[in-house]
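Study the following:
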Amino acid sequence: MADSKAEQGGSIGLYHYWSAFAHGLVRPYLWVVLLAFIAAVVHFLVLSWYWTPERIAASPANTMMRQSADYYAWLTFKSYQLKRNAHPELGVFLLGASSARMAIQSPEGLGKTLSDKLTAPARFHLLAAADLSLWDMLAVSDYLPKGIQGVVLVSAGIGSLTKSLQTDGDLLRKPRLALDSAAFYREQKLAGVNGDLPSGNYLFDHMDFFSARARAVLLNPIKGAPRYRMHNQKLDQSYATADRWKRFYWPIVEDRLKRIETAHQANIEVLRRFVDNVRSHSGMQVVLWEPPIHPDVVARFPERYGYYRTVVANFAEEMALPLWHLDQEAGLVEADYRDTTHLYGPESRAKYEQALVARLVPSLNTILHSKGTP
């Protein structure tokens, strides 16, 4: 009998314990809520004070990267640095998606090669991120340095001309780059997208960007930021030694080529505003750049690929832009491609860089002779 009462007493005590715990969990004390709120406000104010465009411009480009391939964090920091830093040398700026990144082995090495072949120092800037849209490129164009002589190459790849508000509207509503860009805000307005208007608080205006990197914000200063990685040689090899990329990419390429017929005009208008923005703000020469393309794409979809080439060529002629498609000049063959538009390995990229230098040197020399050596 005594044991039974003891067991009942223990059960009642345990019940009251968990009941009190649940009560406190769902109905916390007011002072606890108030302290949590104050702590959150103080934390936000400290971060708002610390993370400003000026701070970002003065920090290494990998400061807030979540991992070595966080190209949007890297490009955000790189863009602010471009606007902040002095640029006494000739500048070459390549804006594009992953196909641009995979076409270049070393921006620093490319800049040195250009400097050696010219009568003035030159620097090559790679401004690329996976699936970078023309809206993103337009935002970056606001950060190109002013008063500098040089060339801006903008990608007019297949992927760039297939974006639409129906399928890609979130790229305008929730930008992946944390850039305060008047050109980008105009794009939101033109598209009728209800993007958040800038409030004047940088952290608040780009909360999605910072929230996605909350772990990096807290831990990178302690354990160190990931090292920026341009290429993944292991991934290159896995693609180059298998035919799986064809099975994976053919439906994607075919779909994109089909979408160009209906989506290209809106994207061409964004591209037009990009060209106008660069010409009016920086004064640099703009070149329309076509990324490398696997010869199988041309052979498999001759009519649709031909339509794409015609669209790009017509725009280049209308805007009086040089149009560079360097695959043949680089002597690229099937083995040089990792997949449909990405080059494989240092040797393939070296071939492409040589062709790019051969085009850039005359253009830069013309700029030097027409405006005088800086």
User: Anything to note?
Assistant: The beta strands are 90-96, 122-128, 150-155, 285-289, 323-324. The two ends are 101 Å apart (CA to CA).
